[in-house]
């Protein structure tokens, strides 16, 4: 592992030593705005079984795809999380009929009368941009506010737009919005497009658009993520003709109409990965289902390399054990990771794995190659006593024998997965951890507090007087 030439060391925030942990949490006053927080008492030992919810990222893509379908689509196993609510609100704002009941969502978009997604809606969820494909393909035009960047990167949408142009759409950027319509008012036309980067979102947008284009479309260097495969399966069940999903080339024979169908959303591989790391960081043994092992194989390899014991109880149930007794060697060993598109190591598990590495023996190199700014959790982990030297999108993570010693403190969730890494670190830390800005975490994890409580964690969702000065 090469040491960096110019190292940026985050100024070491004052971390209360566990023994002198008398952090004064301010008393709430009557008319003060209260912010929800997570409070975790550690170190925790977890045990038992956790049920994994439906995939957030598959749900968002499939909800967008219901705009392609005439009649009603019925999605089962839809996670009850704020991102899904936000996507449903976008569909309703366009005029689609959306009903949700006991984990299902019925969507009928025959009533869509508006093709503009306004900024307010887009602000709530970036994935909302994916509706541009179905709107142009089925309704001939779309006006969608540019999603803009987020805490993990600039996240441009150039590949979505260039791909739509390759299918014959006229696309203009004006007043912070994308204005797209079909050239001849007739419809999109099949074409060829090579993505410069296997973007998940661009692949999904163009797959939906090409499904209703006139003729054959060839998309190459596409994303291979499982969520792309789930979307292709739903579209094919709705009458589309998509071949090659899961590979790096898609051949799509466009159809003039797709019909609503029924689909069970696959389990969330990132939520499953987060709980696998929860078992590891707390040196516990838990099982979880439903999980599709091939969708977390990279993580299984890395946790096994560290010394965890991972066993498949049945086709959809995994047991992860990092019980010291069962660990191969006296404790979990460090390892290096570099994120990359599927089947590489998922960027959405990078923050959680960084938290784990602060508790392993040795030091590790963590490289983030998908997003250019996905290291802000390193600073928060430092507030919890982690020793991390970050430099751009690379970080050296020093383990428990190299200066990291987790103990509770007040930290801020700056994005969804960064927030998840703070929960995991809080479970392993001595003392009380207080996580602010939890709205980031609740965007993508269904009932995470209850699930962890059922595994024996001392975690609660409570409120505190707002701390706008907290940075
Ligand atoms: C999806 O985002 C996921 N979100 C992300 O999960 C995930 O991190 C990401 O794929 C990568 O796996 C949803 O599915 C809703 P990309 P997406 O387009 O589609 C660049 C989570 O935590 N790019 O594959 O936005 C982009 O800037 C979220 O659940 C372009 O340059 O990701 C980035 O560096 C976070 N031009 C890279 O590609 C484009 O037109 C990967 O982005 C599009 C993307």
From TrEMBL:
Pathway where this protein functions: Cell wall biogenesis; peptidoglycan biosynthesis
Protein's cellular compartments: Cytoplasm
GO CC, any one term: cytoplasm
Top EC group: transferase
Molecular function GO terms recorded: UDP-N-acetylglucosamine 1-carboxyvinyltransferase activity
Catalytic activity: phosphoenolpyruvate + UDP-N-acetyl-alpha-D-glucosamine = UDP-N-acetyl-3-O-(1-carboxyvinyl)-alpha-D-glucosamine + phosphate
UniProt cross-references to SUPFAM superfamilies, sorted A to Z: EPT/RTPC-like (SSF55205)
Keywords: Cell cycle, Cell division, Cell shape, Cell wall biogenesis/degradation, Cytoplasm, Peptidoglycan synthesis, Transferase
The protein's Enzyme Commission number: 2.5.1.7
Chief localisation class: cytoplasm
Record domain Enolpyruvate transferase: where: 41-452
One Gene Ontology biological process: cell wall organization
Family stated for the protein in its record: Belongs to the EPSP synthase family. MurA subfamily.
NCBIfam families: murA, PRK09369.1
Name of this protein: UDP-N-acetylglucosamine 1-carboxyvinyltransferase
């Amino acid at each position: 592992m090469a040491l960096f030439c110019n190292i940026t060391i985050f100024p070491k925030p004052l971390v209360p030593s566990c023994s002198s942990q008398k952090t004064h949490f301010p008393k709430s006053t009557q008319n003060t705005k209260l912010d929800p927080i997570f409070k975790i008492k550690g170190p925790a030992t977890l045990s038992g079984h956790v049920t994994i919810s439906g995939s957030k990222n598959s749900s968002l893509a499939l909800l967008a795809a219901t705009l392609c379908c005439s009649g009603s689509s019925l999605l089962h196993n839809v996670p009850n999380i704020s991102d899904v609510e936000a996507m449903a609100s976008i569909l309703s704002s366009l005029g689609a009929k959306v009903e949700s009941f006991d984990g299902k969502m019925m969507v009928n978009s025959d009533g869509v009368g508006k093709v503009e997604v306004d900024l307010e809606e887009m602000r709530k969820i970036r994935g909302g941009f994916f509706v541009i494909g179905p709107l142009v393909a089925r309704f001939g035009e779309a006006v969608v506010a540019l999603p803009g960047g987020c805490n993990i990167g600039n996240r441009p949408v150039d590949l979505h737009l260039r791909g739509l142009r390759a299918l014959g759409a006229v696309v203009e950027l004006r007043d912070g919005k994308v204005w797209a319509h079909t050239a001849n008012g007739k419809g999109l036309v099949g074409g060829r497009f090579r993505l410069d980067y296997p973007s998940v979102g661009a692949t999904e947008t163009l797959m939906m658009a090409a499904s209703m284009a006139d003729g054959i479309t060839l998309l190459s260097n596409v994303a291979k993520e499982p969520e792309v495969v789930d979307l292709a399966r739903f579209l094919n069940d709705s009458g589309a003709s998509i071949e090659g999903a899961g590979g790096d080339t898609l051949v799509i024979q466009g159809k003039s109409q797709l019909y609503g169908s029924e689909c069970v959303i696959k389990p969330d591989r990132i939520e499953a990965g987060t709980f696998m790391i929860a078992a590891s960081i707390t040196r516990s043994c838990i099982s979880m289902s439903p999980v599709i092992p091939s969708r977390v194989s990279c993580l299984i390899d890395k946790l096994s390399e560290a010394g965890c014991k991972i066993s498949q109880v049945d086709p959809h149930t995994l047991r992860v054990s990092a019980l010291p007794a069962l660990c191969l060697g006296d404790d979990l060993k460090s390892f290096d990771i570099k994120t990359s598109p599927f089947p590489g190591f998922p960027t959405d598990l990078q923050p959680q794995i960084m938290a784990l590495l602060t508790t392993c023996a040795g030091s590790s190199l963590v490289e983030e190659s998908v997003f250019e700014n996905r290291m802000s959790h390193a600073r928060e982990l430092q507030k919890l006593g982690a020793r991390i030297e970050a430099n751009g999108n690379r970080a050296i993570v020093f383990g428990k024998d190299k200066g990291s010693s987790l103990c509770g403190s007040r930290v801020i969730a700056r994005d969804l997965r960064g927030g998840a890494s703070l929960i995991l670190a809080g479970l392993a830390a001595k003392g009380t951890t207080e996580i602010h800005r939890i709205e980031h975490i609740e965007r993508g994890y269904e009932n995470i507090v209850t699930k962890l409580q059922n595994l024996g964690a001392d975690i609660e969702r409570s409120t505190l007087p707002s701390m706008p000065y907290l940075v």
